[in-house]
Queue: 3 jobs
Job 1
Amino acid sequence: MTTPSQLAGDPRPRGLGAHPWFICLLCAFLLAGLFSIRKINDADLGFHLAAGRWIVENHRVPSNDTFTYTVADHEYLDMEWLYQAALYLEYLIGGYSLLSLTHALWALLAFYLLWIRLRGTGVSYSLAVLIFILSLAACEPRFRVRPEILTWVLLGSMLWILESRLERRRDLLFLLPWIQWLWVQTEGLFFIGWAVMGTYCLSTLLSPQKTDVKLIRTSAIASVLCLLNPYFTRGFLFPFSFLSSLGSTDVFRYAVEEFQGPWSFHSAPGTPAPLYLFFYKAFCLFLGTGLVATFRNRKIHEWLLALFFFSLSAFAVRNIPLFLLSCAPLAAAVWGSAQWSWWGKFRDSFLPRPATAWALALCLLGFSARILTNAHYVSNRLTDRFGLGLD
């Protein structure tokens, strides 16, 4: 069995089959699965299913807002058409339960990609597990049957490819255009892919080392491929019109809770403050402190990614998972290299201990039990419930 000292010093420890920190990781994935399996209570589902049915029956994408009878003649861009068509076909095959199950699998895939990227940082196993759990806890309210789950997967895939390229582990850049093309057909947040590729391109252009011409060329091709959508240039420019509409009015923030900013979030009267906001703010403090402490060792793309995704998360609580899923490996890297003496003792002596892992695993199992029995949702006055299918 791997010893605690080996776990602290070996970025890829061997013989982890029965090690407490591996058990702790399994408990974290169990909790992620339970977060994912919740009854559908999202009102947007009806709209997505109706749009998918229209697309399948008419064999084309809508060009007018046929779902709002008062403005049926208004232009409408459905940038989620592929997701909606697939959603409707899934519904025909397996009903609401299949929709719950497939989205749970997508969410688990997103967090598996996060775990792979955390291990790629080379930090100790115990620190990687701890940051994984923190990220999972902050993302808890967004495990829903929504197209943003696909954005989690596509974002994680793109970052894994770029990080692998940077560390010279593997060259999978040829996948970037395919990821970006799929993104533009399934979710209006596809501009995030531009931002991610742009930060890495800018970093290599400003680096004293040789410019990665292949990365720049592939990123340009991936961006141009976004024109291959049903609406051509109008679809390509959709993110700009969408963001400008959000910035011009506060109606979304007043009417929809998920558009509230996490730093100015106000719970409904009689409702306790959401627990996930505590984990989100703790992560912000954790990452910010680590970046300041190791600023001499940070690269340009790391600063840009942290700034971009933090800004997105500060704008609306719905964007918190994007911040965590993108920047958790960066947090692991900065704290894995921090040189404070007190932190070194904690990281290399206390954190890897089996007793620490067992205590954390018991907490995760206890919280999992609260999810299974719906105690967590009821005590926090949430409308979510554990299970498959429609609530």
Note: The CA atoms of residues 226 and 232 lie 8 Å apart.
Job 2
Amino acid sequence: GSRQFGTGFLVMMATGALLLATTQYLAQVVQQNLGYTATWAGMMLSPGGVVTMLMMFVVGVLSSKVQPKYLIAIGAGFVAFSMYRVTNVYSGTGFWYLAEARMLQGIGLPFIFLPITSASYDGIPSSKTDQASALLNAARNTGGSIGVSLISNIITHREQFHQSRLVEHVIPSNGAYQDTLTQMTHYFVAQGSSLVTAQQQALAWINQQIQSQAALLSYVDAFWVLTLISLAAIPLALTLRNVTLGKKVSMGH
């Protein structure tokens, strides 16, 4: 019972990390790098919530027929695929590409949340289900906090790394850099700026592009980490033992 519950505790922590981290940073990346307003960022996330609600009914039916460990593994697979799709984000990524990725996650999460309860409570005395429920809630909340902190740290450090690598190409001997600088200088001169001012504006524009690309690449790295966390939950879930299907679980608060 202790090993079973411990495994469920770890899976629930990973699920909390995935849920909170993706909700926060997917909305953040589209606002900071793709030009979405807060309203459109929320609209992009909303279809995933609708899918999650609908999938709760489906998973509720499957839970009485399929072992929880298999359902959890399937759910983790959907979430991993969702995160993998987001690693392909770029400045021209469309609204529905991201919304569909969020909906894939919405399919996977119910496969984890519902079965993990019945799997974790297996072997736990009925007198301790309240404590078990409290611990699972703590696992979800703690995992969410750890996930948000971890991804924030990854984004900060990887942005610095990518920026330092991109700056290496901003040198006078780089033909692409010189061409871009010349083109942007001519652009700002055409907008009415003097030659000196236009050159300064062109340099500032190039610097802004470097920062924007470094930030976007750091988010891609962060979503790769979330993909790996999702994949790691699959073998962990499969170590859970089989439970008696159809057995009523006493739910604590």
Note: The helical segments are 2-32, 38-62, 68-86, 95-121, 129-167, 175-190, 195-238.
Job 3
Amino acid sequence: LTPALALAADVHPISMNGHGEVRATPDLVTVNAGVATSGPTAAAALAANTVRMKQVFTVLEKMGVPQRNIQTTQFSVAPQYSNTPGNEAPRLAGYQVTNQLTLRLEDISGLGKALDALVTAGANQMNGINFTIQNPGPQLERARADAIADARLRAETYAKAAGVTLGPILSISEGAEAPKPMYRMMAMVAPSPVPVAAGEEIVSADVTVVWEIH
């Protein structure tokens, strides 16, 4: 990319923006799931949580999820209080232990079965599913080419209308964007496996091109 140039007084420029985007099917899904348990004591809540989490890890191992794709993202032990009448101070009712995981699943077609398996194993929290493209490089390359073509078409249209011609390119600058999701409507909840829709991702590029005009 060429940085902005200090133009000579006799150089007449035209600047135009261009946009390009490519849609692609995601090939990676990230799932945030976890287990929350309660008990009269912190030890009891933790023991119950540990049993369920071991079941979750066992299921993930059976699913063939690599260890590198499993990460603990939150662990907390919090006291729980009950409401009391009048001006009495809240009473300690027990403790809640929360253990959250982030899973990266490279087999999107098996996501529904994976969600079923997690819930059956004891996961009682699902805090988000995110579809992405592992390597958006090829799509970004195409989007950039389309953005340049879009900018040139616009510049040629304006130049023709103004009675001038495009000369050499003086500069190109880019404002890249992260992939954007496009969702298809998810099917109604039905018997196992859970129906999910990956939709599409939009990989886009925006450029600003400056030409000399004659």
Note: The beta strands are 13-24, 28-39, 70-82, 91-105, 125-132, 166-176, 180-182, 200-213.
